[in-house]
Amino acid sequence: MVDKIVERTERGFEFIEFDDRYGDKCQLQQSSLAKYEQPGTSAVWLGLKSDRMHLDREQVEWLIRQLSLWLETGSFREEQEVTDGSSTVLRETQRNRSQEEG
Predict the structure, then answer these.
(1) By three-state DSSP, how is residue 64 classified?
(2) Lowest-pLDDT range, 12-16, 32-36, 61-65?
(3) CA 41 to each of CA 14, 16, 62, 91: distance values in angstroms, whole numbers, following the listed order
(4) 15: closest CA among 58, 51, 57, 45?
(5) What is the number of alpha carbons within 13 Å of residue 43 lying toward its C-beta?
(6) What whole-number distance in Å separates Cα of residue 66 and Cα of residue 28?
(7) Dihedral, CA of residue 6, residue 44, residue 54 and residue 26, to nearest 10
(8) Do 70 and 93 meet the contact criterion of CB atoms below 8 Å apart?
(9) For the stretch 64-86, what's the b/e string if a residue is b when 16 or more beta carbons lie within 10 angstroms of its beta carbon?
(10) 2: number of CA atoms within 13 Å, CB side?
(11) If DSSP codes are grouped into helix, strand and coil, which group holds residue 6?
(12) What's the pTM value of the predicted model, to 2 decimals?
């Protein structure tokens, strides 16, 4: 992906535009929702410019964890089954091991 260019809406909220894998125009934008904090810090809009999801801070945090796990392991599962000969063992993800060490 190219370097991001942060722009502002007419109301002053930041947004970033980018193309998805298929070349469709997408956008990540601060929301004006002011549930927990000042406007622009409680939620974001994410998705195609014509069809976006409205995600609050908790949902974004959860999504970051899921995407990070997928980047590290290729799976959304916290633990992965690994077959070793005739037995199946559960292998902890790299993330879980590093949390225990830290």
Answers:
(1) helix
(2) 32-36
(3) 10, 15, 16, 37
(4) 45
(5) 12
(6) 18
(7) 20
(8) no
(9) eeeeebeeebeeeeeeeeeeeee
(10) 7
(11) coil
(12) 0.70
CB hemisphere CA count around 67 (13 angstroms): 6
- Residue 100, helix vs strand vs coil: helix
Name residue, tokens 């990070």. 68
State both tokens at 4. Answer: 């991001």
CB 14 within 8 A of CB 29: yes
Mean pLDDT is lowest, of 6-10, 24-28, 79-83, 85-89, for: 85-89
Map tokens 């037995």 to a residue: 87
Contact present, 27 and 47 (Cβ < 8 Å): yes
Helices H, strands E: what count in the chain?
2, 7
Cα distances (Å, whole numbers) of residue 19 to 2, 9, 80 = 10, 19, 32
Q: How far apart are the first and last CA of the chain?
A: 31
